[in-house]
Sequence to fold (500 residues):
Amino acid sequence: MSNDKPADWTTGIEAILYQSCGACGHVQYFRRGFCAACGAANLTEKRSSGEGTVYATSLVCRAATAETRAHVPYNILLVDTAEGFRMMAHGDNDLAIGDKVTARFTPFAGRLVPYFAKARMS
Amino acid sequence: MSFITGVGLTSFGKHEGLSSLDLMSKAAELAIADAGLTRAEIDGILCGYSTVSPHIMLATVFAEHFGIHPSYAHAVQVGGATGLAMTMLAHHLVEAGVVRHVLVVGGENRLTGQSRDASIQALAQVGHPDYEVTLGPTIPAYYGLVASRYMHEYGVTQQDLAEFAVLMRAHAATHPGAQFHELITVADVMASKPVALPLKLLDCCPVSDGGAAFVVSRERTGATGVRVLGCAQAHTHQHVTAAPALTELGAEIAIARAKAASGVAISDIRYAAVYDSFTITLAMLLEDLGLATRGEAAARVRSGYFGRDGEMPLNTHGGLLSYGHCGVGGAMAHLVETHLQMTGRADSRQVRNASIALLHGDGGVLSSHVSMLLERVR
Fold:
């Protein structure tokens, strides 16, 4: 399964995918053909709800390429998702650690990237 | 048994017109002379990498250029931990009897050989190509993420982090080879340009040209020997997205293994040389290594604990933050300075009694760790 391209934001599709191990239950975000925890090959590809909690933030004010410089400042986040994996993404500049967030997708430097904003209280 | 028998270090900063090989050669020549050896006596070479002049066989490129024909040679790549990883390997190679004198060398014209943008971009590639690099992070952003979380968990402030930049600059001011000599204050750090918040320009090490080298030998060659007591590594992840919890990072694992390998306790240590690519790196590593309790390192800087005359002199050459950072040679300067301190040759920077030293290197985003303990033998 790792040989086909994932149908997620890394290939320009509005989705965040992850893998769940049928043998040990481990969930992983970086896609591979086996479970990094136990080595089993029976992984199921799942789609994340896009809900999560901010784990860390860094506001990039100095970028290194012309394409990314056009976007400064932009906030790089680590988000702990509801499904139990951690991912890097963009988000609102005023987000703080612990904020509950929801993902959408936005263009960045010629690509599509996940972008988190504060979740609406229901 | 193995000894660091000679050290060599160029000044860091701009070396207009010099290549990576030139800078490596300069440092190597100094180290071999310092060990009292000749080129022909060097039978092993370990070298780092150059982002300016990448090569799949840099060690033999260097050996040919420098004019030696070793019986053992290759490059090593562990990011910022490369210098100490090479030293650890050299230690084991001479202990195993594979070679007698290993030349460990790193050098790069990273400042004048390429644009700052090129350096920043090359280094950002330690991130995951699909899941991280596409988001436009930089190395400061990876460490900015770590900093934000560490500050959140342990109540560390930006002013606390600034203390480390101020200390490293004060130390660099007394070393003629350092890239920066102008003293700075906490207010200067706070007012410096934002790079990847919470990190600002003066929280970040500079890009430099420079070279460093040392010789690791089976027997000592000088009156005062610097013996490798023990060393250990830990590798917990590559990408910051996959990093373990802050309390389970590799520095704690590596130092525990190094202490076990050497029989040394933290209370025995009299000099510390700790990787300081950013202020947060130094703050965290000091606390991970047990040289301060959680959240306490900045207070120890303020009280003079890590100063030249303090209880635990730290990076007395100015570290990566102010002596400079030329890639692999950057963290090797920490070992060169440690050697000078242990052998009583640190001039105006000389500390009281560097009898036992702790060195620690970090590569990636706190991904790869090497801890090493050295002992002075007379």
